Amino acid sequence: KETVEGLEALKQEGKIRRWGVSNFDVSDMKELLALPNGDQCAVNQVLYHLGSRGIEYELLPLLREHGIPVMAYCPLAEGGSLRDQLLNHPTVEELAETHGVEPAQILLAWAMREGDVIAIPKAGQAHHVEANGRAALLNLTKEELAALDQAFPAPTKKEPLDIV
């Protein structure tokens, strides 16, 4: 409660425009949203990528209900062993070839497919920044999204929030 009050005071003083949270799961978000001005939360930053879809079961629908976007960190599975499995998966490689892009761009386009997920991939070189930006222009078809869903299924039950 005190933190929300402090952040809202900073907004009123013009020192910040918005504030958000990181790694808040469903219970945390419900607690936040029950507080005065808790609904002023502008974003929830969580781990989200094609191989880590746990937020889709309960958290993402809750955030959408309240108009709170997700900021997906590690959308290319940076820092994990799953990265190679994602980038080298035949379905991802096939879609990349079809669209004339790199597999990483397919993963980013997938993460941002609904328009309410902001992906923040690591980009250590200028050409990575440019490639990441072009990923926002990719529109994956329903069939392509279904193929990715088949390769990396959405959760069928609540899962603990993944954190890297």
Overview of the structural elements:
- By secondary structure, the protein is α/β, with parallel strands linked by helices.
- The protein has one domain: NADP-dependent oxidoreductase domain (TIM Barrel).
- It contains 8 helices and 4 strands.
- It has helices spanning 2-12, 26-33, 59-65, 82-87, 90-99, 103-111, 126-135, 142-151, and strands at 19-22, 41-47, 70-73, 117-120.
- Strands 1-2-3-4 form a 4-stranded parallel beta sheet, with no helix packed on it.
- Strand 1 (19-22), helix 2 (26-33) and strand 2 form a beta-alpha-beta unit.
- Helix 5 (90-99) packs across helix 6 (103-111) and helix 6 crosses helix 7 (126-135).
- The relative contact order is 0.15.
Keywords:
4 strands; TIM Barrel; 8 helices; alpha/beta; 164 residues; globular; 43% helix; single chain
Short account of what is shown:
The protein has 164 residues and is of the alpha/beta class.
